[in-house]
Amino acid sequence: MNVAKLLLHGVPDSPLIWQPLLAALDLGETPVAVPALPGFTGPPPTGFPATKEAYADWAVGQAEELFAVHGPIDIVGHDWGALIAQRVAMLRPDLIRSWAISNAVIEPEYRGHRLARIWNTPVLGEIFMALSKADKLANGLAAQGMPATIAREEAAQWKNKDKRRAILKLYRSAKGLSFAHDWARDIPNLPGAGTLIWGEGDPYVELAVARRYAASTGTPLTVIEGAGHWAIAERPQDVAAALRAFWNGL
C-alpha cells in the first residue's frame, strides 16, 4: 500500500529543502505533497494572520485533502514544519497513520534559541530582518550543512518581505518557541506511531531536547551522527533509511 506523504518545511526554508531526501527515498508512485507554508514563497492569502494556529489549521486542510483521496497519511516535518506536523497529529489523529519529525519538537521545557528570541522581540526583530542579507544567509546555511545550491536558492527567497514578516508573526505567536502552556499540553493526544530523527550537532534545538522528549514519551529517536540542523538535506540517505525502517515497521 502506497501511503500518501505530507512533508512540511520549516524556517527559513521552502519546499526545496526536501529535494535531497525525496531523491533518497525514491517513493515512486506514492502520492507526495510538499506544500509551501503560506507567505514563504509568495504573498500570503488575503487576511492570513501567519500565527502558529493559522499554520496548523492550514496544514490540517492539506492533510484533509490527501486523506480524502488516499486515506490515512504519513506526515513528516522539519523545524517549524515538525512542530506543525505534530500539531496536526494532535488535532486530527484520524487523518494520520504516522508522524515523523526532524530537529524540532513540541517539548514543554524548551524555550527557544537565540534567534527565536530576537525574532520574538518587537523592533529588534524588525531591525534584524532589515539588516539580513541574502548572500550572508546563503553562506551561513551552507556552513551549517545545507547543500550550497539549495542554500543559494533558499537565501534568494529571503528577499521576499512577505516571508520575513510571516516569520516574525509566527515566532511571536509562539512567544519565541514556548509551548508549555498550550500545544505541549496536548502531547497525550498524539497517535502512538511517531518518531524523531535528529541531526546530532543541531545548534538551535540541541540533541538533549530530543532525548528528553523521547525519554518522557517513549518515542523512538534516531540520531544522525555528524549532521546538524538540516540533517534532512545534509545526510538524506541516512534520514531516508530511518524513515523507511519506521514506515516498514508500522
Class inferred from helices and paired strands: alpha/beta
Mean pLDDT: 96
Describe the global form. globular
CATH class: Alpha Beta
Could you name the ranges where pLDDT drops below 50 across 5 or more consecutive residues?
none
SSE topology string: EHEHEHEHHHHHEHEHH
Residue share in β-strands:
5-15%
- Per CATH, the architecture is 3-Layer(aba) Sandwich
According to CATH, the fold-level topology is: Rossmann fold
Annotated CATH homologous superfamily: Alpha/Beta hydrolase fold, catalytic domain
Number of domains: 1
N/C terminus separation: 12 Å
Q: Work out the radius of gyration.
A: 17 Å
Q: What is the topology, as strand order, of the major beta sheet?
A: 2-1-3-4-5-6
Largest sheet: 6 strands, parallel
Count of DSSP strands? 6
Total of helices: 11
What's the helical proportion of residues?
Answer: 40-55%
List the helices and strands and how they pair.
Elements: E1 5-8, H1 19-25, E2 32-33, H2 52-70, E3 73-78, H3 80-91, E4 96-102, H4 114-120, H5 124-131, H6 134-143, H7 148-157, H8 161-173, E5 194-199, H9 207-217, E6 221-224, H10 231-234, H11 236-248
Parallel strand pairs: 1-2, 1-3, 3-4, 4-5, 5-6
